[in-house]
Request: fold
Amino acid sequence: METTSRVGTQAQPTPSTTSTPEGVPAARRTVDGYLRAPFPWYGLDEAFTGPRWLMQVGTAADGTVQHGSTGHGDEPTTRPEVAGPERGRFAVVVTVAAHPVRRSGDGTGVLDATTASSAAWLAGSGLLAYTWPAQLDHALRSEWLDQQTETAFELADDLDGPAWTTLSLPVDGVPRPFHYRESEFGWVLAGSTAGGVHLGAYGRGMSAYGLGFSVVADISAYA
Reply:
């Protein structure tokens, strides 16, 4: 696939009782990685007045920050004893640096261009990390995640396909088109900004139709 390469992305967490969003222990979810990014971070705009929190950044082989996520609402949990509506209401915004096809930082290969499909893949796989069926036997969880993650990858590579609809949402106050899909696990959307980044988002319990996005003026406010 030319637009949704998994090269350079960090693996999504497998469910466990000790995981935190994006699989990073709370003590490590600091603002440092976000401050190293050469692109602006996006989150929900000022219309959202609930809690905001950091997740994690994804880096290339040379340590360059490539993407990352900001959380809004109730921090999702992967605890198997917590299921259904009790898992909370949240929306996660994924910011992906826009890049053309380029050589990898270590010079050993070529990285695919990033597009809205890249943001859709990261958002889709992120949603699955917190919405696996709680009733699944532990031995089946990895198989379920593998199957669903592969499906999310294929869907992300076909944003014009029948699984997606379109909607318009404000980005920095200006309406922008997004690809949108719903599933039993939650919703995923993806699009691009005029400012050189692609945006993905996923969530549950919060309607995607009422969201707006804007540049985060101070990422440390999420820490």
Summary: Residues 138-156 form the longest helix (19 residues).
